[in-house]
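Dear colleague,

As promised, here are the two records you asked about, laid out in our usual form so they can be pasted straight into your sheet.

NAME FIELD: protein one
SEQUENCE, THEN STRUCTURE:
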Amino acid sequence: MTRLPLITWVLLLFAVRCGVPQPALPGQASYADLPGRQATTDLLGPGDTLAIDVADMPEVSTKAVRISSDGLLNLPLAGPVHAAGLSVAQLRVTLAAQLAKYITDPIITINVVTNVSRFVSVVGEVNTPGLHPLDGPRNLLEVISQAGGVKADAGPRVIVTRDTRSGALPTVKGAQLVTNGSSARLTLSLNDLTDSSSPDGNIPVLPGDIVSVPKEKLVYVVGNVHRAGGFPLSHNESMTVLQAMSLAEGYSANASLKGAKILRPAAGSKDNPTEVPIDLQAILAGKAPDRALFADDVLFIPNSTAKSGTRRAAEVMLQVATGIAIYR
């Protein structure tokens, strides 16, 4: 054990009685290292806005200065200073060194006005999309949970987009990683993530990341079928009419197979769909080629007495738009 001189013990006792913060004894952690002091070590990042006051230097002081996208802080006299990745305390030391040529021992006060770099953006089919704070280390599932979880019509994928200047996205088995310049995108299976079959996919999320949960791509079958509803394409770009009819469990006795139609939304709008007549009877009999159905297509099977034309098509699209069962 280290022996301390008598005068040191006297000074320590005096400091305790006067409420003066004590220096750490040999082998002890200092107060700044104890739990609960994390705020002093939070790192600054691009987009953060700071209020900086330098005593006796009003030309340098500012109520709002923003860290640029490349991590630089531009202040008069101090010049461009790389602030991203520094704590407030480290930035204070850096600025003091830059201003030392103009003033001896400058007194600098720095306050964080906005801390946008400590947020992650969660968009798409989640219950609470938007910016969510990262008040500590978070993994992908925790961030999705923080956004209220996924909606019922969420697709089978989750996409994490990251600025490569913030760090590299990890390689995950079975996931697709694409890097394009300063941006990287990792596409993971949401199903594997939530059922824990791919724990490596539950990656750490960094400030500035964008987490996207795309909507499920569906094909709808409505009208005179046994199981009308929306059916997911999953990882496929299309399904055939016969596949859709199988998922809908076939047609009812009064279905008009020759009057079947594919209602295909116009680009960028679902208000004026294109009607594509098909002879379902011939397709089922193998006398006509099967047809492909794509995302948001509606396969409509009328009955023999159904209203025809645009009015009936509009009614079908309204049925889809206002809610229909989705099967997975």
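NAME FIELD: protein two
SEQUENCE, THEN STRUCTURE:
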Amino acid sequence: MGYIEEFLSESQQKYRDAVAMRGNDAESVKRLKEMTQEISRQAQKYIVLCEQQIEDNNNFQKKCLDKRADLYEKCQNDKRLLSDLDAERVKIAAGISDMQIEISKSKQEISNLAKEQEKRKKDKEYWEKVWWATCWIPFANIGTGIKWSEEDNQYKVRVRQIQNNISHMEQRIGELNSRMQEICRQQAKNKESSGKLANEIMAVNGEISRITEQINQLRNEMVILRMIESANRQIDAVAEFSNDSIRVIKETIAYLNEVKNEMQSRLLTTKYVNGCTSRGDRLLAGEILNHNECLLSSNKRFAAIMQADNNFVVYNSERPLWSSGTWAAEGRGRILFDTKGLIRLEGTSMRWDTKREGAAVLIMQDDGNLVAYKENHEPVWASDTYTYAREPVSAFW
């Protein structure tokens, strides 16, 4: 962008010099033709340079697109792995819950068996006392004793079985808990990896956007350069410094100035205004300029932006020209134009205002000056940045 703008300025100056030394003699016409041929050669040189840069940017853009595709694939793999881990974790949690329920049931069964065993023991002790007290132990009661002995053995076997099952399930729960912890570690690692991939994708997308903007810009510059060549051919076809040739040269100078303004406007938008909401070129009393809103001059070459960092800044296409100096302030700043005509920044830990009341409108002017006016058009306050404005074409004639 810089060398093209410099080329436009140099071309304008050469056209003006040619007009200043105009004459109908053969030498003047020869100088004019030499000048247009030189400008055309330079334009052709820049066209070749633009074509090479477009090719380089296209190659770089392709690499970025390929890299983004690879990152997207890795991201999808991470998502699939995370989904599989989530499914396994849910399955394990359900298995642990089921086994804990079974353990609880088994412990309850042991408790019930213990109560039954305690009851049998008391019954046995009771009947044994009765038998010994009466000294009557019928032979038939030997079968009852055998039955009690078998029930004792069955009780012990069943309790051992239940305890073994409980031990096995507790061991399995321990294994599943270990796996659950491993899954949680894998998920944390996976999420960290996914976060890094997401940041890489954002960075690559930023590179792709930047390269795409550069390619479009270079193509626009090639169009501009070819139009300059066309204008030069019209001038070169003139046999003398007639009124027609002077008109063509003046139109060319005016056109080049419009081109420069458009380039500066596009650069301002790309560098500073992107992401901001434009409120037009003025703010009226009673209105507010919020975070990430701006006043954009009608020629789109200057902007006053209420930035997200709480700084209120006037920009041209190249650099900031003025600021409220509140960039380090905490809070969420906004420009309030109160009904008394005082313009102030509020909502932050730092303050700024115009110090004078009575303003009716704040305008971001085409000359780069941000000015607050009374209703009678008398200025109340200004950023004093008008000295950065470019000289208009009409000043040359």
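A couple of things worth noting about protein two: The chain is about 65% helix and 15% strand. The helical segments are 2-20, 26-134, 141-236, 243-273.

Best,
R.
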